[in-house]
Queue: 4 jobs
Job 1
Amino acid sequence: MASYRQTGSPGYLFTIVLVAVLGGLLFGYDTAVISGAERGLQAFFMGATDFTYTNALHGFTSSSALIGCIIGSALSGLFAGKFGRKKSLFIAGVCFFLSAAGSYYPEFAFFEKGVASKSLLVAFNLYRVLGGIGVGMASAICPMYIAEVAPAEKRGALVSWNQFAIIFGQLVVYFVNFVILGDHIAPKMESLAEGMNQIINAGDLAADANWSVTTGWRLMFGSEMVPAGLFTLLILLVPETPRYLAMSGQEEKALTVLSNINGESKAREILNDIKNTVIEKKEKLLAYGALVIFVGIMLSVFQQFVGINAVLYFAPRIFESMGMGNPMTQTVLMGVINITFTLVAIFTVEKLGRKPLLITGSLGMALGALGVALADAVQGVPGIVGVVYSASFMFSWGPICWVLISEIFPNTIRGAAVAIAVAFQWISNFIVSSTFVPLYTWSPAFTYGMYCFFCLLAAFFVWKLVPETKGKTLEDMTTLWRERMKK
């Protein structure tokens, strides 16, 4: 490391960011793994004799990780401030690993393997909540970590790679689930009687269906142990962020990290700027006014209220209802499109800025959501117009929201403010995810018309209240919000 302290090393920066974005990949992996496992899991618990596994219970089980996400994001500020960004990511990695292992084998030490029961369902959900805590912490701290190590002129692109990793993680788990399932079938569990009849009376398909119920869903959840273990080990090899080190009084270590990234001369300038903004180390959350907190919260709320997770989580059902062929094939295709348009954001965010991408994406999503609504209400409108909806999100609100949340807050309140903003994101996620199915069942046209309205509202919000942060250092945020307080 000493050999490149004078000039800095792009390779060094790339390596530590690559490790950090593995947390984003786990974020995507953990939230999407349920899409392939839920039918086999449902059939398994329908075999319980001490309780009836209803659709409502299955809905809770499928989304229980979101409860952990809310808890983890709320705790992220406390952990990031008390233990540092690096140690907090290590804790998140441990949560990921234990959750994957526990979801694979929830009977561990306490229950008979393969025997569904009410107590086993509780244990399974606790493991999923634990994984959600890891997701919540990673969703807040990974972008924060990247933002705090990245040079100002590269920060937007590097933080955007975290969103790329999230989408890539979702795509990876779609393929992993597909490979695990192979030629086996995943039984449709519309009702207990229908589900059991499919398994018992399926003839040659019985063995395939039974394998999905006894083994398939376990392997899907267990597959996450591989990336989770890799992330947990690799995070031990990266440095703590220079901003946290400076705030903790470890200025020499902070200078070393900054020098390895930027070169020693530039590192001393950055360290001086950091020191000038952290002298009031224990500033209150509202030290820069309520507006900065409001903007952070609303960025998170709008990222979810535009309805994107209703598409991502329930894509197979949506495509199936539109009669668009094999829904799993369409889901994988949408994953490829999502990755492609996330790359658009990565390579344009530093050239075009944050606000233009958000506003353009909001308008594109409004058009796409309107198209999906019309596809249901008017004959002849192609359902594939919904791809515009997803693609527009992926070059705008998907990555850019995380960029802004990681950079708009002043150094002294960043940990707590990011935690609050991300907690609101997961709460909003839960609201959208839990209301989508009943709303969509009642009226697809109304549901996507409502999302269209929120897209337009999001564009107006960005235009009026969100500051442009392109090219600004994290230390510039202190000046920006203090000036806004005076207006």
Job 2
Amino acid sequence: MYDIIIIGAGPAGLTAAIYARRAEKRVLVLEASSYGGQIINTPIIENYPAAADISGFDFANNIYNQAVQLGAEVRFERALRIKNSSSEKTVVTAKNSYVCKAVIIATGSLNRKLGLENEDKLAGRGISYCATCDGAFFKNKAVAVVGGGNTALEDALYLSDIASTVYLIHRRDTFRGEEATVNKLKERENVKFILNSTVTKLNADRRLQSIEVTNKDGDTQTIEVNGLFTAIGRIPENKSFADVVTLDSEGYIIADESCKTNVDGIFTAGDNRTKAVRQLVTAAADGAIAATEAIKYIS
């Protein structure tokens, strides 16, 4: 019997593990793939208090090691469902079933795709969802980035140091991301802004060769690029728990700043819950709050 099972080893889940272990609770963290969440692919973090100029990889390693050193148990198993009863919760994976008093769902989210023909076939052949993972393959080549949030802006900035030209394509004329990053991009001579436009076609032989871009007036243009980096949002990984907790129309777990779901003893933290701001610092805050509320519940 665990006190708290945390599903997801991103910043929210690992922060929850740190707080729960400091309260001397028996903690199990279940992670489907690798620890760190999406922050592990961020080249430089500049907006986290007291940790300026740290890479996402180093940040993820630091928080993981801190949780483990405090005694959190981590198992790399995908949680498939949660069985809820008044006295206990059971988290079922493909390998095992684990019983606990409280659950924190911190599964984060997945990359949203453009939905274009041949997009899946071209993944790894010009299409990428991780600039820091694949950017080096496009040194001195033309690339495009699609999106208007912080991830897209950071990807474009990162790629501007590698690629010959970076086309930043956004469906609106203003960006959701930080103005400071937008201003940095405007200073880069090799960054070209294509606004009020969307990518409507992928042209390829065996690899991506060019993209068709359509603006709000319906006019199209073909841009020759070797790489297309998509950063148009995320899809929350909550489907496995839809029969237990309430989701909104976009699939996010409904929870306010208390991180409480509609089910007693089940909490949520991070990018998979309904919230206005999804940043590293808010993920960590969610983890601390969810753990604190879980500790109150089981006490």
Job 3
Amino acid sequence: MRYFISAGEPSGDLHAAQLIKALKEVDRYAEFAFLGGDLMAEEAGVTPVIHYRDMAFMGFSEVIRHLPQVLTNLKQACNAITDAMPDALILVDYPSFNLKLAAHAKKLGISVYYYISPKVWAWKEHRVKQIKRFVDRMFCIFPFEVDFYKRRHDYDVTYVGNPSVEEVDEKLRHIPSREEFLNRYNLPDKPIIAIVPGSRKSEIKNNLMIMEQAAAAHPEYQTVIAGAPGIDLEYYGYYITPGTPIVKGATFELMHHAKAALVTSGTATLECALLNTPQVVCYRSNGIKLSYQIMEKILKVPFVSLPNLIANRRIVPEMLVHRCTPELVGRELSNILPGRPGFDNQREGYSLMRRILGESDAAATTATAIHNAIRPKITQLK
């Protein structure tokens, strides 16, 4: 059967690559076309219609600045779906773009599945109307999403487990030792504070300098920055002290070997928690208090970081907007270093979070469900 998959950012590329692998296991005749990245390309054996590097525009202003590119991408993606006429369109998060693809696919009579729900429970809840209209079945990766969709919108969705759990555990089986990691990146034998400033230039611009300044208050540690795929190393130089080491393509290893981490809010916060590394979650936009008050009104959840949302309690500190300053972030960082109370408290919270997520193989469960759903339709057509 033919599958068209759309993932618009690095985390989606990772999760979609695992889904492609699982689909090949349940459907030996599977053929793929996709929007995504190198991991998907490696697993599918074909190049992306559009690489996520040319799609990852975040926020209203960034989309407006790149509107011609966004519209070109959308037209190209819709044309590719029309040409491929897949048996299933599978969307991975990235709602502004993907829901437009869903509407296009439904006009063509193509079955639409969503793997990894958009965060409609946090903001832009109105998108649920589009989801109910255009998506045949939603597969969620957070347990609380099942109740949200059913209780608030009378929409049945399926919790399939969280892919990060299996991905992290699998990577841990093959991770290099600390000595190998230090040698590979020419790092001194000194404890590490990891800085994970995000995968988009806007996130790096707004957060990296603050995060490095907060870490600099602990000279007994070395600060190491996680370089994101698709971002030139030169770009980081605008926002860091010259000579600060950057490791590219090794965020996972860096967080694992770090004693603590400063992480921009996103999927990396969950991975850091699954690695059992204490963290402070940072997110700064324009940094004014009014923005924070507006955000509090818009957000429909008590937390923004995934560890806290999953556990429904404060496991990690969230330093957002005007609270994301070197002084305040540094104070929270001091409390989670080894030997301080926050270090053990976070690890206890991480254990609770893991129990809530469970051990289900999200990609395999989703692949089986999609294949079983479309196989009868294909049989009828024959």
Job 4
Amino acid sequence: MKVTEHLKSAKKTLFSIEILPPLKGKSIQSIYDGIDPLMEFNPAFIDVTYHREEYVYKKREGGYLEKVSIRKRPGTVGICAALINKYGIDAVPHIICGGFTREETENALIDLQFLGIDNVLALRGDSIKTEPAFVPEPGGHEFAIDLVKQINAMNHGGYLYDDMQDVAPTKFCIGVAGYPEKHFEAPNMFSDLKQLKAKVDAGADYVVTQMFFDNQKFFDFVKLCRKAGISVPIIPGLKILTGKKQIITLPKIFHIDIPHAFYEELEKCKDDNAVREAGIRWCIQQCKELIASNVPCLHFYTMGNSEVTRRVAEKIF
């Protein structure tokens, strides 16, 4: 079932989550252990992120350099298939530009179609740590809009090679990212909204936002989107702050603000446990306000921590 179909048929605000694939060497059980405590809240769908393989160059005998993989997470496609098989739930794989040629993207989408997966979240993806800025794969896409265009073309039977015979159109529901506090690379909010509108015009069916801690910024973002002619559903993305380190790292990594009232509360916390409790209280407050404004779905970035998500969900759903 497509994400947009879930949203259209819902009689109340839905619950959904995003999970990270485990690091190399971990079993699929680690994924199940993070999802099982949340199944009582009937998540409408589960997003599965994709993480590019990372490399370093190690100097070997004779002076030559060898490219060595240092970080690799199991494939998103396989994890989505496992989730569908175990839970009978709709899985939404992240499809990114970085690290893929257009041909590899097409092949991945064909695999997803064969598995009966009809939702994807199309993202540019982040740069790898050894690059100061995002560098597209040779023969790949530079921007998320180009990825959206390729997926939408396949939805209309358009594959890369015109000589293919009797091709079957795909039926992907395409999600894209939105940024209530502006993408950090955009010069201003106007230009960022212009890019988002272009992605929707290219075939995106819904928007899921970057995490935020200030609901007013989300409400303002939605108003600006509607004014710009973006009429597709907009799903708020939420993260529960769980430790003192995140007070610094989350704004730095994701280019977001922590509201003054929340920060004052966090300043009083003496340890991670106190921060986690404050984060849970703040997120519950966010959720109640968002539900009162009739958002279609609350999407939680669990980051592998199902316990805090469960504690919020049991107060909301």
